[in-house]
Amino acid sequence: FAKLDLRVRLGTGIDDNVFRSPAIPYVDLADAAQPLITPNVQSGVYVPFSLRAKYKVNSLENEGFFGSYRFGGRFYQDTNLKNANELLQEIAFGSEYHRKDEESETRVYSAFKIESRSTTRLTTTRITELAAMLAAWISLIACPICAMALSSGCASDTGH
After folding, report:
1. Alpha-carbon Rg for the chain in angstroms
2. pLDDT in tens, 89-142
3. Fewest CB atoms within 10 A around its CB: which of 15, 42, 102, 132?
């Protein structure tokens, strides 16, 4: 009847042009003096990270309602490259239809998604805020009924 899907991806990579600097010098047309700018191409090692939680409730054989949360990013290891860190958060909910037999497969997704992407320097305070937000969304995914009653406690008979 219900299904919880958790996925975590962690890796490592090397970026040969972290800030996507041009390869050749250029004229800065925004400056009235129009100086010649020589770009500084920087390379570095990063850790791509992705965490996805999806909770699906089937009401019919081939149909179901889902809620999901995804957190991911690219985190550079060199302190001089921290401003190139990328962060993604995504919350989605909707319905899915999936039917498969020997001859064909049909999938239809109808969903609403809110996404936030940013390039930002992560601080201890920001990491704490993100962890609290993740904990709140996991509790919502664990009990979809609570989505309507966060301030007054769980509205379901699960007792949490």
Report:
1. 22
2. 999 989 988 888 888 999 888 888 887 777 655 556 666 777 777 777 666 655
3. 102
Whether the predicted model's global pTM rises above the 0.70 cut:
no
33 φ, ψ to 5°? -80, -15
Alpha helix locations (H) across 11-155?
124-142
pLDDT digits (tens, 9 = 90+) for 32-89: 999 999 988 999 999 999 999 999 887 678 888 889 999 999 999 998 888 888 889 9
Question: 2 pairs with which residues across the strands?
Answer: 57
Determine the Cα–Cα distance for residues 52 and 73; give it in Å rounded to an integer.
12
Determine the Cα–Cα distance for residues 1 and 117; give it in Å rounded to an integer: 33
Q: Please give the helix or strand (H or E) that residue 6 lies within, else none.
A: strand 2-10
Question: Are 83 and 20 within 8 A, CB to CB?
Answer: no
